[in-house]
Design goal:
Layout: H1 2-16, E1 24-25, E2 31-32, H2 51-64, H3 72-86, E3 97-99, E4 103-106, E5 109-112, H4 121-130, H5 138-152, H6 167-178, H7 193-197
Antiparallel strand pairs: 1-2, 3-4, 4-5
Helix pairs in contact: 1-2
Length: 203
Amino acid sequence: RDMGRWGDLVEADLKSGRGDDGCRQSKGGDMMQGTEDDEEDEDGAAPFGSASLRQSVSRHARLLYYRRMRAEADRAFIADTFASVFGFEMDQTPPAIDVTPTHVQIGAAWLTRNTEATTSSASLAAAAAGMASVIVPQASSAVVEDMVSCINKQWLVLLTGSASSGKTTLVRTVAAMAGQPLYEYAMNSSTDSSELLGCFEQR
């Protein structure tokens, strides 16, 4: 299943020439619409070995395989295997974050911001300026990019880590970036599914 997903994601990138956001990413990290950086073959897709192909293969491999490994040894094995098979290193460069009044871009992933409460250009600019207070540590920016990619694909996201490692903060940060409400529910090992889904008690 994951191999099929991987191939579909890379194929979609190459056919459209775009990332998750429908926009190409410039070398400086800015969003560019409809700009062709790579030469195309007869089918309109980027040629094998092009920078866009390597970037797409690497990014989706990181999302589907690397991030799912919890142990550092397992992640190192995935990265080494990737390099041995494809002949280049998996890209681990922290993605740049770009904020506009209507969108937030994290690397190749993006979020549409909720602008229903802002009706004027001045209020939109103020909302964008307010994003300066939302800080994403560089070490976590790649995780946020992968989270946003999963959200855009409507995939479930499971964050793991020790207590106080920043899991809740990352989720709150993504919600703040999108300007969307976040509903939190505290659970523990004794939480029953009926507490989440509800149930009918027979009398």
